[in-house]
Structures are given as C-alpha cells and as structure tokens.
Amino acid sequence: MFFLKDLPTRRMIESYSGHYDTGPETIRDGLTLLRRASLLIRRLDAYFARHGFSQLRFLFLIVIDREEDRDSLTVGEITERLDVSGPVVARTLRTLLDDGLVTKVTDKNDSRIRHIALTPEGRERLTTILPGYFRIIANEMEGEDP
Amino acid sequence: MFFLKDLPTRRMIESYSGHYDTGPETIRDGLTLLRRASLLIRRLDAYFARHGFSQLRFLFLIVIDREEDRDSLTVGEITERLDVSGPVVARTLRTLLDDGLVTKVTDKNDSRIRHIALTPEGRERLTTILPGYFRIIANEMEGEDP
DNA sequence: GCATGATACATACCATGATAATAAAAATGC
DNA sequence: GCATTTTTATTATCATGGTATGTATCATGC
C-alpha cells in the first residue's frame, strides 16, 4: 500500500529529485500509479470484508477454478500462482477448509502432496462475489466512484 | 496487495464477466494496474527493508519535511496526510522516536496536542534514502527491472 | 463552576503479510 | 538397502495493517 493522500507537487518532487537524472514527471507518474492502485485495493478489500472474505481467499479460489482440464491444484501449485509465501497459503487454506469452501485430499502416490478442490459452496461463493468485484474495478477504470 | 502472478487471459475474464456490461479489456486494464503497482510496492518495500525502514516510516518523515513555513506537524495533521489509521501513526511515531529520527513536544496551550519535528538524523536519513526510492520508481516507469 | 460532550492521542487486541525452523515423505547415492 | 539430501507442507514467531476502547484535556451549557 501507498499511504500518501496528497501527492507531492511537481515542484516538490523537483526539490527532492533535482540532482538526479530522473525527470519529475516520471516520478509523479509512478506515485500516481501507486496511489490509484492503492485506492482500488482499498475498495476491493472493503468489498471483500463486507462479504466476510479477503482478496487472498478470493484469488485462492479463482486459481483453482480457472485451471482448465483439472478441478484441483496442489498446495505448491497454488503457491506458485499466487504471489504470497507458503505459510500464508497454508493458513488461508485452513480458513477455507474450516468454512467448507475447499477440500483437501492427500495424493495416492506421494503422500506429501495435497490436492485442493472447490466445494459446491466454494464455487457458489465465487460466483456470488465476482460481479461486484468486476464492477468495482470497472468503475475505477472508468474514473467513477462507486 | 494484489497477489496473482499471471493475469487471467481475455477469454478467461470473458467467461467470468460475460454476463455483465463491463468490457473484458477494462477489467484486464484494472488487473494490470493492480499487478504493476503491487510489484512496484514490493520493490520499494524491499528497498526500505534493506535500510531498516518502511514505506510508512519514510512517508511519515516526508510529510513533515515537505510542509512549508513550518518544521513540525501535530499527530493529527500527520494522520490527515497519511492514509492510515491513528493507532498506526501512533505506533510508527514511537518507533521513529526510539530511533531518534523525530522529536515530540507537547503544545503549550493545549496539552493534548503533540508537535512532531524531524531531528537532524531524521532529515539525513531521508536524504540518504530518497535517491534510491526515486530511482526504483523511475526504473519501473521506464519498464526496466532494476 | 461543574457536569457533559468533544477532541487528541494512546493502548489493547485482532488479521494477515513475512521469514525461520520443523516434520514427514520421497529421491538419491554409495 | 540404508544414510543423506531434497521436496512438500506446516508450525512458530515477528511486523504491521486494522477496529474498538481508554485516558487526558479542552470546550460548552446550565
């Protein structure tokens, strides 16, 4: 997250970066990107929270659901697709299991491996939440406040 | 933060959002924005961590430093300028005080109010860290990986 | 001029990101 | 074919975001 409510003015950036070779506009564009994305993430997080969910729980379900030809992923595969650490995946998995949104099955040949699949409830939850998720993103990209 | 390493394909987004009025390109642009900003934030956080700092500590110092005509801000004014909750500002203030980067002075007329100012060390720390900060942003905006 | 409410800041605790260390199973090598 | 290394997943602990609550001080109204 980027926490600055008011971005620095061009002049202010110049006074900071003046001695370096990077143009103030480039810096300002970067800060604008950070700020825009942070606000969007805030909105998305608030939306998920209203549904007793979180961005990570949502994406966890998505990566399983979007996999073609298969209806499950291993914990390691989920970790590969999500940009979070293994322990966070393990903990998120636990909460999703507790809520009955996914199932965990140990592999027959290699008992280190766990196959994670969506339950019908998990899939339903996903389809419930998706439209609002897309709407928030679309609103933001169209410059409107939802 | 946005955690998806590989953004969904256009087709995949369509399959999810097909029934709504938002175009898949708009959604994809939004996801791209989120992903780009998240990667940049990761780089910045790693940079700050290498300097025993954090994005928030840095911005905390910045908002004091950039204030014109004054060399201090109250805790409330800092909270207004940063998009974080009061308690987080209070805790960050404590760590900055412990590190000797800011001073805290109770107001003469209203003893609820604390005036926070940079110490010379705080200002020096800021000037040490700033160039690398701008460089990371500039690199990212120019599409280069640092 | 004292009770009541508002304001400024801090504390207590929860949620969720990280890294380091661990446990269990499989693969490897002599 | 057993010791060692690698792989998979988890547990333990820390850092830092949040909300709810608490404390001290100031402002207000009767």
Which parts of chain A are unreliable, with pLDDT below 50 for 5 consecutive residues or more? none
* Strand portion of chain A: 5-15%
**How much helical structure, as a percent, in the residues of chain A?**
55-70%
Number of helices of chain A: 6
Quote the average pLDDT of chain A. 91
Oligomer: homodimer
Describe the overall structure.
The structure is a homodimer of 146-residue chains. By secondary structure, the first copy, chain A, is mainly alpha-helical. Helix content of chain A is 60%, strand content 9%. In chain A, a hairpin with a 7-residue loop joins strand 2 and strand 3 (114-118). The two termini of chain A are 20 Å apart. Chains A and B meet through helix 1, helix 2, helix 3 and helix 6 of A and helix 1, helix 2, helix 3 and helix 6 of B. Chain A binds a DNA duplex (30 and 30 nucleotides) through residues 1, 54, 56, 74-76, 79, 84-94, 110-114.
What is the structure about, briefly put?
Two copies of one chain form a homodimer. Helix content of chain A is 60%, strand content 9%. By secondary structure, chain A is mainly α.
List the helices and strands and how they pair.
2 copies of one chain form a homodimer.
Chain A: H1 10-17, H2 24-50, H3 55-65, E1 72-74, H4 75-81, H5 86-98, E2 102-106, E3 114-118, H6 120-141
Antiparallel strand pairs in A: 1-3, 2-3
Chain A binds a DNA duplex (30 and 30 nucleotides) through helix 4 and helix 5.
